[in-house]
Prior knowledge:
Distance between the termini: 20 Å
CATH class of the domain at 327-406: Mainly Alpha
Strand content: under 5%
Radius of gyration: 29 Å
Order of helices and strands: HHHHHHHHHHHHHHHHHHHHH
Low-confidence stretches: 1-70, 73-83
Shape: elongated
Largest sheet: none
Number of strands: 0
Amino acid sequence: MVVGWHVTSRAIRTGLVRTGTEVVNWDVCRLMRCCHCVINRNKFMDKWVVCILLAVCLSGCRQANVNKQIKQGTDSLQNETVASHPVDSLAYAYLESGRIMYENGDKLGAIAEYNKAIEIDSNYAVAYYKRGKVSSDLKDYKGAIADYTKAIKINPEYANAYYNRGWNKSNIGDNTDAIDDYTKAININPKDAESYHNRGWNKSKIGDKKGAIKDYTEAIRINPKYADAYYNRGWNKSKIGDKKGAIKDYTEAIRINPKYANAYYNRGNTKSDIGDNTGAINDYNKVIELNPQHIDTYINLGVAQYETRDYEGEIATYRLAIKNCSPDADLYNNLGRALYDLKRFKEAAEAYGEGIKAFPSDGKLYYGRGLARNQSGDKNGACEDWHRSSELGCLQANALLPLCGEK
């Protein structure tokens, strides 16, 4: 009897794409040189002199123009409607010093500067907001939430603070409250596609797939080129059984971003679900072209090749995966099983053996090697493997132990 496994684990990503880049457009090139001098100031320099230098430096230049990020929101001062400070104030100087330190990678230094700004003015909403953003970068999500809450208390119309507080609540698993924060951000700014997108992500997390789809649809209405919204809407459509709708959304995400590896991957999975293994194979091959170390793609590609009776292609896929990817027990197991199905028992035993070297506690590898050894005439070796497999908790091995003269 031929026994083996097809491992079809599909680690489908449902999360939002938390990426984004701050683009700073310096209007006067001297600013960076001047501020660099301030950051690296002599520790004996009078603090007031430093602040005056910073204020003079900044007053001759336009404020940095920062794009909104999906992850953390904008650093824009547009929501600073409470306790605003002129550029020559001490609190603003500390705020700008903190921003520069942050941009140069000194996050703890940035927090220290924001602390000083808050010490001067405890109602400085933007200082709390910026400190919250740095805390979030340092994965202090609760600290970030506390700062965004203070910023919101000072300025109840601070849409970006609601947005970022929602994002941080999501990171600690508080999806319901995150939804509430995104809703408040949307009420303040109904044209914020990212807030709809992230609210949809959290709705999906709590099982509200239809609500998520509705939010992704609104994000797409606002921004028709929002690839991530198409991607996540496609995933949720697939979950409620709308496979064709999911494929359509993945295809649109790919049209917008031809290098969107996860969209190809999930489109391949969905095609496989509806029996289009040839289409799935094409998508999986594209994923491997874009990301040669995406191990789940190799596994699913091998399964699709098996379904289309391309057994040699399946074997070649697993061998390539073992070469390109981090060690994975399922790859060795599937390779051994594929060789076994072709009655290449010696090669199958060798494949399982290589897997056992890397994963000596994986019971199914011993079980598979036992099958291959038994077919090769090595009954003693087969029994040794089945004993070890049984010890490791592989129940299938127990059924074969009577072949070894045991009851």
